[in-house]
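Technical annex, item 7. During the second reporting period the consortium partners agreed on a shared format for inverse folding records so that results from different sites could be compared directly. Each record opens with the tokenized structure and is followed by the designed sequence. A conforming record, contributed by the partner at site C, is shown below for reference.
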């Protein structure tokens, strides 16, 4: 198919007005893209306030009031439910009471569940050996412990193995398969891994073993030849089981296996048994620690598990609660207690030590052994925290020294010797928070020869990590992940090409306005509306987490009465805040100007002092001291006051406010076709456009000789020629093509920015 011809004379609306052009440029052409880009948000010096973009959804006052009256919720929280897609009274009632939802049988939703159960029932009856291959993260370790407890309680001969993070990496491998075979294992059961392990599972089947895969990761093009595969990605998207983590799949399998062995009528009867309650504790721990979405059955079961965890019969859970300082939480735990207190102590072991410590912690029935293992987890977590602090500071120093141009590159790649592979993913998340761009961080597998690099990646909402790694496929030895995070290994010799590919991909998908953290705000509130009663009502929305975040309120024109840095390294900012009188009066809220509240901004010490008056986004929490409980704001966002955006009461004003504040969320330059745009690169002029090629959009660049360079974001090579039949493949990382493509992408972005500004 021939390349569609570019017009030699551009339509009038593809040119920018003369006052946007650089000196000596023709008014019939678009300027070089870099000359028209907005001022860069990334500066070498710290800005006076964090650079953020806020998204505030349109208020639905009437719908919120109806939900509030029917459910006895504050209208503020009713608006939060609407923001979560819960838009009717009936939906709200079911959300607030998830136990009222009737669940389908797991056998109906998981096609291979009956097959897996039958194999396990026969193995238990015959005394065959069963081996679990787990993983070294919290999901994999809790999944392993859950199935070990379930299988052994049902009379199975069961053992486990977990690959080494440092020497083997993720998932079942052929070494483990051969070891299982040598030990006389008849059934291999993978948990939280296996869906992409074609070679090891093929080998296991060749050796005569039965393989049951339980996993929740994305599906490869070809599934492994296992006798049964349980993965929520294989079931209907509407299923309440769709969001299960690995531990959730293990929980379903364990309940159904026990139901069959005990001849119960349903797995939910098993869930009420002593065994079921024990398994629920491990499900809750693993689901929250793995950041699984708290929707569907996850919300229902985690809500139950959080109430039960403080009285868990598992000695290891009790010991972990003790060393984490949560023994006083008798009424139940909140997700953050697991996410920030229990989960890190488990994850730390998998990151820098031997996961067997955690498996023994969660499977032993000896309180003494459990306490020993919990103390070991505590010590390992302290070391993990120390490593993270050291690596983060070294990474920041490295970035200051190398001074990357994040506005041009739009992605941050940090490679440094001597870092621990197990914790660099945590540091990557912190760097994303700090710099607002996708981060790819790595270290050498062996500091002596520095031949291979192993790394982790973390993303921002508009950037797909997995797709970016696919784009870099031939630069990498191996990689994996999903939209928000991933891991990769590459030869050091390919580092420069890897960086260039990532920069091109980022320039295709990220606009300038994406290069700062996004704050999703739920609803505007006056300080007079904030109370301990409102804070307690938020419990009805729990468990909060991925897919159901804690509510974020915002208040305009807040005065910062006091501010000071606190913490060991003065890293945090403690505030006393007060709402401006004029705003309170405009909303007819008497006394609002008298409300002063304490607030804390974690890791914002470097911004002290902040401006005296700001718009504030925050979550509600409490401060308990000497028997007194007071409301406190956890600051998540701050910006200079937006004078034209009042705190509205009715729906129309709220709609106007949302339109004024909310950024236009786009996924990048390659979002829709464009007309040809002329731009200058070096001393030559080119035409570029975004056009459809089949079902995909591609960037086309045409030179004065009629040759076209065409590239699609999912491909790491481009075609160049006068038509597709004669076109040759071009490596886009070659310097000339690399800089030409970036210039074209900038030209498209500049033109679109002008169109938005001057419609």
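Designed sequence (site C submission):
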């Amino acid at each position: 198919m021939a390349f569609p011809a570019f017009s030699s004379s551009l339509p009038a609306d593809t040119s920018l007005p003369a006052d946007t052009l650089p000196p000596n440029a023709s008014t019939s052409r678009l300027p070089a893209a870099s000359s028209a880009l907005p001022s860069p948000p990334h500066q070498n010096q710290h800005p006076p306030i964090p650079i953020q973009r806020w998204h505030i959804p349109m208020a639905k006052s009437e719908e919120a009031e109806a939900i509030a009256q029917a459910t006895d919720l504050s209208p503020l929280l009713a608006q939060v439910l609407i923001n979560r897609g819960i838009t009717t009274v009936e939906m709200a009632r079911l959300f607030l009471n998830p136990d009222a939802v009737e669940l389908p049988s797991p056998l109906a939703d998981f096609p291979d569940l009956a097959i897996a159960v039958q194999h396990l029932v026969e193995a238990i009856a015959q005394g065959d050996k069963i081996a679990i291959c787990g993983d070294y993260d919290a999901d994999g370790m809790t999944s392993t412990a859950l199935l070990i407890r379930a299988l052994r309680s049902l009379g199975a001969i069961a053992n486990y193995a977990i690959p080494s993070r440092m020497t083997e990496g993720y998932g079942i491998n052929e070494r483990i398969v051969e070891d299982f075979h040598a030990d006389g294992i008849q059934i291999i059961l993978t948990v939280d891994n296996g869906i992409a392990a074609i070679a090891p599972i093929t080998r296991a089947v060749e050796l005569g073993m039965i393989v049951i895969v339980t996993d929740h990761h994305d599906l490869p093009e070809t599934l492994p030849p296992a006798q049964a595969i349980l993965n929520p990605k294989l079931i209907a998207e509407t299923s309440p089981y769709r969001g299960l983590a690995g531990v959730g799949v293990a929980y379903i399998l364990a309940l159904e296996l026990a139901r069959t062995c005990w001849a119960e009528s349903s797995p939910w009867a098993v869930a009420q048994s002593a065994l079921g309650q024990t398994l629920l504790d491990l499900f809750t721990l693993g689901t929250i620690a793995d950041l699984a979405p708290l929707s569907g059955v996850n919300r229902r079961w985690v809500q139950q598990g959080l109430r039960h965890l403080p009285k868990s019969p598992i000695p290891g859970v009790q010991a972990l609660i003790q060393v984490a300082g949560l023994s006083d939480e008798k009424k139940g735990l909140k997700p953050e207690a697991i996410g920030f207190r229990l989960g890190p102590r488990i994850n730390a072991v998998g990151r820098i030590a031997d996961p067997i410590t955690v498996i023994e912690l969660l499977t032993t029935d000896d309180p003494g052994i459990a306490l020993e293992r919990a103390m070991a987890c505590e010590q390992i977590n302290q070391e993990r925290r120390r490593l993270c602090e050291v690596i983060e500071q070294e990474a920041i120093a490295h970035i200051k020294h190398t001074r990357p141009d994040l506005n041009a590159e739009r992605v941050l790649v940090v490679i440094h010797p001597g870092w621990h592979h197990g914790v660099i993913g945590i540091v990557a998340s912190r760097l994303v928070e700090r710099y607002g761009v996708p981060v790819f961080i790595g270290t050498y597998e062996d500091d002596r020869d520095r031949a291979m690099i192993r790394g982790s990646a973390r993303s921002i909402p508009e950037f797909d990590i997995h797709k970016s790694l696919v784009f870099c496929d031939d630069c990498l030895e191996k990689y994996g992940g999903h939209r928000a995070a991933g891991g990769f290994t590459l030869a050091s010799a390919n580092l420069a090409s890897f960086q260039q590919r990532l920069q091109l991909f980022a320039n295709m998908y990220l606009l300038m306005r994406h290069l700062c953290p996004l704050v999703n705000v739920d609803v505007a509130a006056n300080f007079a509306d904030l109370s301990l009663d409102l804070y307690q009502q938020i419990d009805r929305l729990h468990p909060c987490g991925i897919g159901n975040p804690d509510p974020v309120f915002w208040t305009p024109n807040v005065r910062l009465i006091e501010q000071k840095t606190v913490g060991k390294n003065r890293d945090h900012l403690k505030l006393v805040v007060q709402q401006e009188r004029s705003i309170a009066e405009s909303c007819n809220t008497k006394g609002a100007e008298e409300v002063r509240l304490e607030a804390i901004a974690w890791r914002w010490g470097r911004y002290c002092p902040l401006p005296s008056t700001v718009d504030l986004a925050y979550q509600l929490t409490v401060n308990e001291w000497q028997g007194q409980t007071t409301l406190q704001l956890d600051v998540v966002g701050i910006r200079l006051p937006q004078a034209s955006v009042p705190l509205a009461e009715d729906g129309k004003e709220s709609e106007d406010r949302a339109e004024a504040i909310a950024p236009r969320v786009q996924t990048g330059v390659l979002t829709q076709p464009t007309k040809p745009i002329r731009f200058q690169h070096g001393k030559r002029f080119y035409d570029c456009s975004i056009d459809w090629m089949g079902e995909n959009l591609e960037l086309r660049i045409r030179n004065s000789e009629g040759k076209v360079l065409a590239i699609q974001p999912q491909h790491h090579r481009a075609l160049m020629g006068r038509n597709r039949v004669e076109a040759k493949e071009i490596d886009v990382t070659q310097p000339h093509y690399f800089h030409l493509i970036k210039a074209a992408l900038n030209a498209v972005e500049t033109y679109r920015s002008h169109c938005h500004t001057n419609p």
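The CA atoms of residues 308 and 332 lie 7 Å apart. Confidence is low (pLDDT under 50) at residues 1-44, 587-593, 644-667. All partners now use this format for quarterly exchanges.
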